[in-house]
Amino acid sequence: MQPRTGGRPATPRLILATRNAGKVSELRAILEAADLDVELVGADAYPDIPDVKETGVTFAENALLKAHALARATGHPAVADDSGLCVDVLGGAPGIFSARWAGTHGDDRANLSLLLAQLADISDEHRAAHFACAAALALPDGTQRVVEGKLEGTLRHAPSGTGGFGYDPILQPLGDTRTCAELTPNEKNAISHRGQAFRALAPVVRELLG
Ligand code: ITT
Question: Is 121 noted as a catalytic residue in this protein?
Answer without folding.
Answer: no
